[in-house]
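I am going through a labmate's work and have reached the protein record below. What it holds is a sequence and that sequence's fold in token form. Please read both lines and tell me whether the tokens look consistent with the sequence. Do not assume that whoever made the record got everything right. Thanks in advance; the entry in question is below.
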Amino acid sequence: MSIAFEDKVLFLKQRILFRGIPEEEVEEIARRMKEISHAAGEKLFSEGERGYLFYIIYKGKVRTWITNEGEEIELAILEEGDKVGEEGMLLNRPQPISAAAAEETVLFALDKHNFEWLLINYPDAEEFLYTLAESRLQARRYRFDWLHKGETIHILTRRHPAVLWLELTKPVTVFVIGIFLLFYLMKVPGLTLVSEIMGVVLIVISFLWGLWEVLDWQNDYFIITNQRVVWLEQVLLQAASRREAPLAAVQSVDVQTSQVGRILDFGNILVRTFTGTGSMRLTNVNRPKQFKGQIEELLIRVREKTESTEEERVRQSIRQGLGLEAAPVDDPIFHLEKPEEYQPTGLAILRTREVSPDGLTITYHRHWLILLAKTWWSLLGVIGMVVFLFYGLLHKFTVLTFTLPPLSFFLLWFVGTLVFGAFLAYHYQDWKNDIYKITKDDMIIDAEKKPFGEEISRSAPIKNIISLEHQRQGIIRLLLNFGLVKVVVADATLTFYDVHDPAQVQQDIYYRQEQIKLRRQEAEIEEDRKHLTKWLRVYHEIWQEEERQKQNNPGEDRPGE
């Protein structure tokens, strides 16, 4: 296909890579770019090859993968506006991945000479390409297991290094004090041993503290994928959380910077959503304008896809309404990625997530460790009574130095087992009755019922949820993967305490909420289509009637002629 030069320039101007570049200079870049077409399955380059071209996808899709022990591991499906091939060109090394057209694809390409010209003349573009290359390298390294099928990481960054250096001033101060004690105060008579011990202790503490700060900084990520904006935060050995805002729900993206932030290029990013769910404030993000620009570029892509799909559905709906033959459209306008189904494991009686056969009702119980904390003594008592029984039978009803009559022995064993068993059953039923639920009628429920006691139940419509957040605090919760999910509804807060895999619970709630919102949007659009089709059908009937009258009365003037 031949692309008009004006369309080529307009396409490039919408890319974050060329944002801020004057139009006449974008035109010069467009002239240097070649238009290349690839058929489905045709390779752009292979892993290990030297990179000679940098591509921007104009139309179509490109699949990327790496090969591990002869097996292809798919990395991403890149779409319109995505870049590929920059890693080998930037770093002057063999390509770390393979890429091929997933369908008939048209690309714009810069050869090595023109790519180097771009980097020299436009430092901002060079900086963004390095960010992109580093993000893809990190994405391949970590292979986050929460990514959906077909989800691609575009930007992966951390807080600015200046934040780390600021935090490191604290352990450095402790280190300096330790050095002072070790090499200066030890010369003071009577303080030698004390200063040596304190100096060594403070130096060790400062080293461990500094190492902790570095690891803590490395464990926080801000991520943009083709589906959502994600904030991964992990405080080493203390807590972990993941907050996210789906691109389909993002309303606006704002950047806030201080004078220091503008100099060092870091700032805060506020991502607002339509529903409030997932709205979040990302603090001290490195290169915030790049981050914001990438989100905005992806938002344009999401909206263009939605508009294109809607136009096609309207076209087919009108054809159906006018009596023209057209296949009905079964696909929804909006697509929402369903979270990966959790596969239950372990004993059924200790299962912490139960899904109804129709998949519409999900019930959560608190983690089994919470049950164990309440029942360990009664469980030990039951086990002790079993040991007591076998010990008595083996030693002819002799316990310690006492020999009991068989009836007394069995009566003692029965009463003890009954008492411990009753406490165990009570606490188990209490744990089982403490439930959190997503219902098929789109409600969330927090219910607690004491055996033989009162029942407390709180509920709220999922559609009224303002925000969602999950947390795992403490090393035990981090290791066993349980924590709380906080659901804010209007002026109330429902908290799911100690649920297993709180990230999965958050995803379940979010998915149901987005389903409700998209169903409402679908219904509104379908209603608009019906009205539009009705008007057009009436118009078509009037037009046909006028045409028939003209044919029957060819010499008669019609009103308005």
Remarks:
- The mean pLDDT is 83.
- DSSP finds 13 helices and 25 strands in the chain.
